[in-house]
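[STRUCTURE TOKENS]
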Amino acid sequence: MEARFDFYQASPDTMKAMFATQKVIQATGLEHRLVELVKIRASQINGCAFCMHMHAADARQHGIPDHVLDTVAGWPEAPWFSDREKAALAWTERLTRLSEPADDRHDYDRLATHFNEKERTDLTYVIGVINMWNRFSVGFRREPE
């Protein structure tokens, strides 16, 4: 698959704004492991190989073990995800699959048990941002490096 064009060169101001989102995410105070797991899971759902590869590599550099990364897609059955991480991953799936009708009360109640209002807001921002990055990379066929 060949990239369609270089969207960084096509619209530098847009891409500057996209990169600025990373500073906001870093300032949230959410755990790095949790943020990377959310980014990987949303990217898996969206089929974004570039983002899956990049965030798995980043997670490994920050000490997240391979057995954890190998099972992100099967998080409900894996014992090494905390209840907080499972709540975040369920929320990630719910918000990434908006077109699938579902009653989100259980997922939201689970989220509210483990995250305060600021953290819920920040986590939802992280989920929205990675979904946006996925759309750029998938839509313009950016391949893993």
Notes: The radius of gyration is 15 Å. The mean pLDDT is 94. Helices lie at 7-10, 12-27, 32-46, 49-61, 66-69, 83-96, 105-114, 117-139. The first helix runs from residue 7 to 10.
